[in-house]
Amino acid sequence: MRTTATWIALLCIFVATLPAEERQTPMTLKKLTVNLYADEIEPCIHFWERLGFVKTQEVPAGNKLAFAILKKGDIELMYGTYTSLNADPEIAKTLRKGTTYLYVEVANLDEAIAAASGAPVVKPVHTTFYGATEVSVTEPAGNIVTFAQFAR
Q1: Are 122 and 102 in contact (CB under 8 A)?
Q2: Residues 41, 90: one domain?
């Protein structure tokens, strides 16, 4: 019967015999930012500011915005307009409008509900089989945002 140490040694030998390209560690990802699009982003900015986000960058387009970045701690959201996407021919020919679903874990669901008050409710407060209490709302661009609090 082989011991754990024997299995580890055999695994090391196997890995050492793999070609170099198969032994490389996966690349390091540094950040993932959600990039959402809307016909008009100012109402979206207001929605997220009520949740504690701060607009850190913007690109104007006339008297409106074409692009904005919002941050709260390490969380970052980008918003752009569909008009700005349509200005790029390669993007415009593949653009498909659709709803994005965001899942946001919060420490206090009541605070999130208060901050999102006025947003259309898609699914009222409910408890899931995986132990979260959730509510889902629609933000101004039509995306669904689910706020979830887990019992600790």
Answers
A1: no
A2: yes
Instruction: Give the separation between CA 104 and CA 137, rounded to whole angstroms.
Output: 11
102 CB-near residues (< 8 Å, 6+ apart): 34, 143, 144, 145, 146
16: helix, strand or coil: helix
Number of domains in the chain: 2
CATH of the domain at 124: 3.30.720.110
Instruction: Give dist(CA 14, CA 29) in Å, integer.
Output: 27
Amino acid 5: pLDDT:
52
Residue with tokens 């960058």: 57
CA distances from 66 to 80, 85, 88, 102, 137 (A): 6, 9, 13, 22, 24
Rg (CA), the chain: 22
For residue 33, report the phi and psi dihedrals to the nearest 5 degrees.
-120, 130
Residue closest to 140 by CA, chosen among 37, 61, 35, 67 = 37
Is 107 in contact with 149 (CB distance < 8 Å)? Answer: yes
pLDDT in tens, 133-152: 999 999 999 999 999 999 87
Residue found under tokens 């569909």 = 82
Domain range holding 76? 31-97
